[in-house]
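Hi L.,

You mentioned the student needs an example of a multi-chain input paired with its predicted structure. This one should do, with 306 residues in total across all chains.
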Amino acid sequence: MKLYRKKRIELVVESACAKAIIDMIDAAGAKGYTVVQDVAGKGNRGIRDAMHLTGLFRNTLIIVVAAEDIALRIVERSQTLLENYAGIVTLSDVEVVRDEHF
Amino acid sequence: MKLYRKKRIELVVESACAKAIIDMIDAAGAKGYTVVQDVAGKGNRGIRDAMHLTGLFRNTLIIVVAAEDIALRIVERSQTLLENYAGIVTLSDVEVVRDEHF
Amino acid sequence: MKLYRKKRIELVVESACAKAIIDMIDAAGAKGYTVVQDVAGKGNRGIRDAMHLTGLFRNTLIIVVAAEDIALRIVERSQTLLENYAGIVTLSDVEVVRDEHF
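Structure written out for the whole complex:
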């Protein structure tokens, strides 16, 4: 079984800007992403709790697996989009089997 | 504190085949897994949205931490199970404290 | 774009002890964390299913990104807190853009 190296990007963003982030991910060339809605958390703008706040303050967790060049583009562009929002963006190494899907 | 190297497998699969994937994970020898139900996403079969589609089209995120041999077995077997389904499977390195739990 | 190396800690714990774990994460010096409530799973204490069990037996997934010293402190302290609970704690390498947020 051959494995291919890709990058995994994990973004935790205010749900209010999740749509803009996802549109950017699409435009950057990623073939797919996973979205976990209504996560809670404490970030650089204070506590965000899925239980007690309105949609505006909920966080969304987005996972993208992509080739390195696309991944770096997503990380870079996310910084502009998140300038006025709370957001955590991390990049890490993963391996996949189906090279052509990413 | 001693840390042990294990593999983390992240699978995002159509919820319709999540049960078959979990049964396979058990049979492959993993001692545990975590399941996040009703995630949304866009994969190699188009957009899947937790808000608008029925259970049949929702995705499920499954995380497994296991020794390398078990992890590779899970990745390999997942390919057969996912042949007719959308699915993303990634493998990465993690460290754990409790060696005996994996 | 400069990237900085940090550690990502992923904890899957019984929801009954999630509050204690989060308080510990705060006390350990982490600037943020993400919480995914009501995840299901099978761990070293048997099957935990978000569908069928009460709040006491549900699991919570917590993600922390932090500098290495803080991350190791969190992993170490989690072992004491989880002594009587089911829990999976993994540590892995990630890169971030905003060094000052972690």
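You could point out the following to them. Chain C has one domain: 4-94. Chain C has two helices and five strands.

Best wishes,
N.
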